[in-house]
Structure formats: structure tokens, C-alpha cells
């Protein structure tokens, strides 16, 4: 069954390798490096039809270097992922999904944290032109747009952050709430035409700051938003680094109970996590999750989770 995955951090791994750490002994190649959980071979084996690649700048990078780091990752997207792998096709507009041929895999650029452009909206417009189709305002820390989920003061969106959401709306770009503070989340709900939680689970089942509480989940569904479950065990089982596929499916069950059967998808966070769900260690294992879901849901519902819900809720 075809899959759309809305979050991975392969670009950061490729950048670190190019800079000589930590993979200098094993140079990374998107086509087949086993250090990448989202390499081309794995994507093909897992029947992934589209993979989202996040541009993520580590918080310790000095502010005056963040834009350069973002450009390096985008360059790797164009040269190493698209340029060397004809099967990878750049999705630069939502209509491009409809023109994917058999055997082609869509590649989508996203931004995880507005730190990359600071308060320079010219840089943000450049990101739109380069094909960024989803923007998360923060990672866990605060920046000029908003507070993240790890910021103790728990502030919401700044005036700049609200302007960014409006620009996302105008450019048919998702606003990603996965790392936002609770107040920031609700600010987005008031403004965003296209909200998505690209990689978050249910807080009621796993009390973690990165997960969404019941009111947030209901708010997302009310505002036509998508919630894509994440495969990171600490976000599945509280205070644990292990999980089974059944444990992950419980989060899907819970989201369905809250009315989201038509607004659920997958956002693995592969290449950004360090522990894994059993039998779901990389994208090649995706059909193990599909087979587990088919035991509990109709084929039509599982197709919705796998790819169709996303396609039906993409910006128009």
C-alpha cells in the first residue's frame, strides 16, 4: 500500500556527514547508506510514494550561521536526493502529487523551526520559491516567531509569527504545530488555513510535552487539520525507549475515537530518532504497520491513514 510520510531528518544527517561528523568513516549516500533510515532503497521497499524532508538547524548553531546551514541542507536535497536519484521527483506544488508515475517517489521540502530565516521575510519568500511546502514555527526552544514546547514560559506567537502564518496561508503552505507551545498552538488555530501536526501523538496515552492533549486534538480536527503519528518510542510509551507496532496503533485508535479517522497520517521522524518501534526501524518496514492496521480497520480506512487523508486535505 502506498505511503506518504510527512517528517524525516535525513537532510541533517547528510549535512553532518558532509561536514565530517559523525559519519566520516562511512560517507552517506542517499541511494543506499544504511545509516539513513529513509534511503532510496528503503523507501522503495516500504512502498513510500512521498517522503517529506525537513530542514532542521540544531539549536547550538550560532544565529548568524543558521541561514547558511539551511541553504546547505537544501542544496543537499537538490544535489544528493534529487540530482543523483532519477526515481525521486520534486514536489513543488500540491498538484505535483497527481503527476507522479509508477515507480517515482515524491520528495517534499519542509522547514522545522523559523530560526533559519530569523525575522527576514525575504528569506522566507526564498524558501517558498525553493519549494518548502510546510513550515513549523519552532523546534522545542523559543525563537522570534513563537515559543516551542520546551520553553518554560509557554508564550504564544509573536506578531512576526502571526505574519508568517498569514504568509503560509497566502502561499498554500502548511503551518506545522508539532513543536509549538500550547499557547502557540491555539494562536495557530485562530489563524492557519492549513494546520498540520507532522509528527505528534496523543498525550492522553503518553504524557510527553511533544504530544497533543485532547482539546488540541479536537481543535485540529475541527479546523480541518491533519495529525500524523510519530514513531519515536518515548512519544508512544511514557518514559520508555521501546515500543511495539500495537503500542503505536493505540494512538491511531485514540485519535479515531476523538473523530479523526479521516485526518490521520504518518510522520515517522526517521533519521531524527535514536530508538525504534519493533519491526518498524526504517521506511522499508512500513508494510508491517499497514498489515497490523488492516487487522483492525477496513482497507479503505487504512488507505486513508497511509496516503489518502493527506491528499484529500492538502491545500487547494
UniProtKB/TrEMBL annotation:
- One Pfam family matching this protein: Peptidase_M19
What Gene3D superfamilies does this protein map onto? Metal-dependent hydrolases
- Identification of the protein by name: Dipeptidase
| Higher taxonomy | Bacteria, Bacillati, Bacillota, Bacilli, Bacillales
Amino acid at each position: 500500500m502506498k505511503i506518504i510520510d510527512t517528517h524525516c531528518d535525513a537532510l541533517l544527517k547528510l549535512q553532518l556527514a558532509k561536514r565530517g561528523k559523525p559519519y566520516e568513516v562511512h560517507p552517506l549516500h542517499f541511494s543506499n547508506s544504511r545509516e539513513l533510515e529513509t534511503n532510496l532503497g528503503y523507501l522503495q521497499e516500504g512502498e513510500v510514494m512521498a517522503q517529506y524532508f525537513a530542514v532542521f538547524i540544531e539549536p547550538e548553531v550560532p544565529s548568524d550561521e543558521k541561514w547558511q546551514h539551511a541553504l546547505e541542507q537544501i542544496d543537499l536535497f537538490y544535489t544528493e536526493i534529487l540530482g543523483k536519484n532519477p526515481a525521486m521527483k520534486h514536489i513543488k506544488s500540491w498538484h505535483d502529487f497527481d503527476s507522479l508515475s509508477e515507480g517515482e517517489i515524491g520528495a517534499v521540502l519542509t522547514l522545522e523551526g523559523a530560526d533559519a530565516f530569523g525575522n527576514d521575510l525575504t528569506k522566507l519568500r526564498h524558501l517558498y520559491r525553493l519549494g518548502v511546502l510546510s513550515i513549523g514555527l519552532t523546534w522545542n526552544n523559543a525563537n522570534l516567531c513563537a515559543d516551542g514546547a520546551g520553553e518554560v514560559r509557554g508564550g504564544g506567537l509573536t506578531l512576526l509569527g502571526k505574519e508568517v502564518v498569514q504568509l503560509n496561508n497566502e502561499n498554500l503552505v502548511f503551518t506545522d504545530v508539532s513543536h509549538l507551545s500550547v499557547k502557540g498552538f491555539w494562536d495557530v488555530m485562530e489563524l492557519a488555513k492549513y494546520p498540520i501536526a507532522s509528527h505528534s501523538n496523543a498525550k492522553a496515552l503518553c504524557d510527553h510535552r511533544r504530544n497533543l492533549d485532547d482539546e488540541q486534538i479536537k481543535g485540529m480536527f475541527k479546523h480541518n487539520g491533519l495529525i500524523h503519528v510519530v514513531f519515536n518510542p518515548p512519544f508512544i510509551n511514557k518514559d520508555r525507549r521501546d515500543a511495539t507496532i500495537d503500542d503505536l496503533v493505540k494512538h491511531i485508535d485514540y485519535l479515531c475515537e476523538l473523530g479523526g479517522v479521516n485526518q490521520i497520517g504518518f510522520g515517522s521522524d526517521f533519521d531524527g530518532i535514536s530508538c525504534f518501534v519493533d519491526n518498524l526501524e526504517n521506511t522499508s518496514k512500513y508494510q508491517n504497520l499497514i498489515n497490523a492496521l488492516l487487522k483492525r480497520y477496513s482497507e479503505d480506512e487504512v488507505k486513508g491513514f497511509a496516503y489518502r487523508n493527506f491528499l484529500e486535505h492538502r491545500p487547494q
